[in-house]
Amino acid sequence: MWLQSLCEYLPEAAIVVLVCYGIFLFIRHLFELRCLPPGPYGLPWIGYIPAFGPSAFRQLDILHKSFGDVVCFKAFGNTVVVFNSYETLYEAAVVNRRKVGRWTLSVNDWLAQGHGISNYNTPRAVELRHALFRHLYGHEHMIAYLADRSENNKLTAPIRKEINGLIRELEDSKQTPIKVMPIIRRTIWKIMWRVVFGTMCEMENGEIEHILQQISCNNMENTMLQASQLLPKCILPTFKYFPYIQRFFNVDKLTERYKVIHCTMQREITKSMEAGLSPESLLYRFTEDDKLKLTPTELHRLAFELMAAGSDTSSLTLTWAFTYLAAHPEQFNDTVNTESMDAIHRYASVVPFGLPHIAQEAMTVAGFHIPRRAMLIFNLYAVHQKQLSTVWNVTPPIPFSLGARSCPGGRFANKLLLDIIQSVSNRFNIEAIKENNCPHPVPRGLTRGPAENYFVFHPKMAL
Asked: Where do transmembrane segments lie in this chain (predicted)?
């Protein structure tokens, strides 16, 4: 009898429970909205449209000035939180490091096909990242290079050889305007090749310049704040079968350039693998790691990311460094030191917003509620601009970002950049050539293009 009565009232009870649960979720949502950082309102689901596309950089700067150090807005159903100061960025990336992971950009996922370490937050990506730290910085020659110990070091001599080659090309310009980017790219590429493959790069200079130009174009156009990067992953397979969808989302040119880069890199990597990897190479150490069990696809993708990302950002930083040296010659009467490099990194801000992160758990930053699965953007450019306007800087530059997802190659890149800039500064006074008084380019993508392209290198008088 009682069972029959229970069944009669069960539908009503279920409805009451569901209604109460819905009210609870709504109240919790309102509470979270009140605790979110300030920011602009946007269209339902679509979000704050001005923050998308080519004007994203300017819009984030406007939002920073309007709403402060932590800004929040909606984008295609996602909560986006931007940290604009060193203090808030440090609290998010370091204090809450276990709660922060990598946000997977949709277009990058489509291109990488699920492989690599820079765009993913999977356990395998984290494992590969840890292995990269271990094999890059645990090798005796890298340890010696970072410590400036050149005796019997098989890494220092090849790096010095490439730097000397760069100096000779600058001397051969005979104090006439020269476009430095192609020369810098070749130099960095050949050094990175030595580290990754352990051998001399046999690619033609023209081919190196072409592939790095394709990489640079993709990085400068492929912004994180565009509709295509926030598409649901289930839509991505349609790119393969419906090219017009690629064109609609402006992914077609990115895809074409990526195919050129990928095919060239795959050919060269396969050639090196067939010839036998050098025991001095980073890839060899990966293949000998029995615990890692690296697949051929993972090895190819790892080599691709190391060569592409490392060469492009380092080349851009050097070009910005030459602009800074030309504008502040009084700071470089003596040799370039750590303080000089800090100033150059602040001035360059080559990756102005880093790569996007994700809040793996809800957290609190600067008193604001940051919801789970929010996209986190670290405004490195704003941090560096504030540091440049401050006479005494108590916070360091963060060109390689902060926290558990900072650039793994940062230590090596900083040492290499210091060596190159020291060599150039010791030999030349630099003059930047303005092209029709063009202003500095406004960043549109993941990287920030060079301020100037042409320079004159005047040899310093020998003492």
From this structure: 12-31
